[in-house]
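Continuing from the previous page...

OK, I double-checked the sequence for Glycerol-3-phosphate dehydrogenase [NAD(P)+] against my notes and this is the correct one:
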Amino acid sequence: MVHRKVAVLVAGSWGTALARVLADNGCSVALWTRNEAQAIEINEHRRNSKYLPGAELPPGIRATTDIAEAVKDAEAALFVAPSAAMRDVAKLVAPHLHKDALVIHATKGFETETLKRMSVVIAEELGRSESCIVALSGPSHAEEVIVRQPTTVVVAAQDLSCAEAAQDLFMNDAYFRVYTNPDLIGVETAGAIKNIIALGAGLSDGLGFGDNAKAALVTRGLAEIARLGAAIGANPLTFAGLAGVGDLIGTCTSKHSRNWRAGSMLAQGLPLSEVLERMGMVVEGVRTTKAGHILAERHGVEMPITSQLYAVLFEGKEPGKAVGALMGRERTHEIEEIASASRTKWLR
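Thanks. Re-ran it with the corrected sequence; updated structure tokens here:
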């Protein structure tokens, strides 16, 4: 067993679940939160009741509100802050993190203001090269990881040695299997854009549509992810893996998905502000829909599902009319889109 210190920032549901994996692997985990009451509950009662009610946390996890203390002497730092807060958290960490510490993030989203991926945001604030920032992604609901249900994810970095270091840190034979992938752009893009499609899946279910509609949505959603990914430099093969179709299936079909639940509520006619208030937690798909819509326009990529969800979320379009707009699109050939993706440099 290893006995390395790892800082986890922040103590939401996913950060807490990954902290458990690390603690189970023998790491000493410093779990940072801004909330003093939450830190006391974790340390004294081994609970994080707001985010993972009923789950008991192992003794290897220690919460703190002092970010300098959290990262002091840490051999690795795991960023799990919401995309909207990632830059601020990285900025707070920068003066205290050792220059040789491994940096990993497990956040699925873009910075809406700049359209930058999380690895770029972290690298900028830490003053590091993006090449050794690692992204952890894949089908992985916190509610299942926290109770040690079998889960498989991927860690991606341009520098394979950094991805392998993260793989060593997280992988165990009991319930958490980790693959490596050099396609950082593809893994981050897939993880972010699938949240848009999950919103659509929840909306579809909320409207009372069946399996046919959801299967079509997931399949065509994957095509949108692959088109955008290829346009910004990703390997199309990544989208056939855990970060792509794997995460997409998991998020679009699960009761645990915040994005699915938000989409379902939107279908019931609730305004976005009320949906977000009821959720009480970050719904990354909302911000990502805005970013994805802008990225599609910037790169000249056709993303009709994203476009219609953008209209529902930010332009007041009725969900039923958005479905009609998707079904009434001009006819096209599926194989041409696949061929277009395959003509990228990755598959030559």
